[in-house]
Amino acid sequence: MKFSRERKAVPPVCSCEAAVEARPRRIDLRGVALPIVAVALWWALSAAHLVKSGLLVSPADVLRTAYEQIGSGALVRALSASLAREACGFVIGASAGLLLGGTLGLSRIAARIVGPSFDTFKQISLFAWIPLISVWFGLGDAAKVVFLSLAALLPVAAHTCDGIHAVPRKYVELAHALRYSRLQLVRHVLLPAALPSIFTGLYLALIYSWLATLGAEYLLVAGSGIGNLLIDGSEQFRMDLVLLGIVVVGATGWALNAIARRVERAVLSRLHISNQ
């Protein structure tokens, strides 16, 4: 909410503080210490041949397989197919979740009529819908997108509704005192106050839909994708292909996580600046 207030004169920042702020931020590498140690231990075990089993392949074999998969284009095609399904399911599910959560949060009638059914719907395991989805939509991309949309819808709807209900009552009372219309109340009070909770739902939806992508590709096996790459590696007993798929899945999830956090910080920061 925007309020006119008298700004106090701010003393100039001293040169020492400005020098500290001007220093470039150091990159924290502590988070990569454990992966580096794990890869080094894995490399040492495979090089010493302490584990004589086809279940443990060397990192060099995984790198060689990655080079072959990238060179042939198979890895790029599989990852592109998975990300396309992820994006489609996330957009559909998040949009429906925002609409449903906003309706439940803003309308008391909808909360009383639809709320109990939605609370029951949330308790059903996501993978319990796969038999029904496979019968209705088959085993193709349509079934997978529907499954991913369900995975994205639930957290967005729940956090949007909870975020609106968690807005302090005094904010609403102040808006009524200022004679805000219903649209102004939603735009300038409810939405900015609930935005952190909404972003939490969107962040969880992005992660859940990526995890659901692998589950859908594993259980609804038609088509290409990273999940099918893991299945092929398992069926052919190629642990190098399986480990490559796991690394790609983890790296992609980390990238999605980083992008979502960066977008969240940028939007909230801009909103905070605009409200000052």
Structure overview:
77% of the residues lie in helices and 0% in strands. It has 12 helices and no strands. The protein has one domain (74-275): MetI-like fold. This is Sulfonate transport system permease protein. It is a multi-pass membrane protein.
Structure in a nutshell:
Residues 75-260 form the ABC transmembrane type-1 domain. The protein is mainly α.
Task: Describe how the helices and strands are arranged.
Blueprint: H1 15-22, H2 33-48, H3 59-72, H4 74-106, H5 108-113, H6 115-122, H7 130-137, H8 141-165, H9 169-177, H10 182-219, H11 226-235, H12 239-275
Number of beta strands: 0
Write down the CATH class. Answer: Mainly Alpha
Distance between the termini: 9 Å
Number of helices: 12
List its traits.
276 residues, mainly alpha, MetI-like fold, 12 helices, elongated
